[in-house]
Amino acid sequence: xxxxxxxxxxxxxxxxxxxxxxxxxxxxxxxxxxxxxxxxxxxxxxxxxxxxxxxxxxxxxxxxxxxxxxxxxxxxxxxxxxxxxxxxxxxxxxxxxxxxxxxxx
Length: 105
Fold this sequence. Notes:
The protein has about 100 residues and is of the alpha+beta class.
């Protein structure tokens, strides 16, 4: 299974329908594996959020976080090499909805 539910995230930030739409439209839609296979902060931004990526044990940990205030994380995926763009987007969307970390392979 290319997208697998992992553990419940700790101290995940809350969002509402309007904020989730902002994240989906400005950050998740069109996101590619090649975008996150670089360790970089603020790869993509919206009015209130940004996407970061860092390498951890041969995988990329991708997080969407608030830009201001508490800077809480609202979505997390761990991406293995060979993952598809669609699976990356699906994993982030799922994490945003339920607060779990998703494993994308």
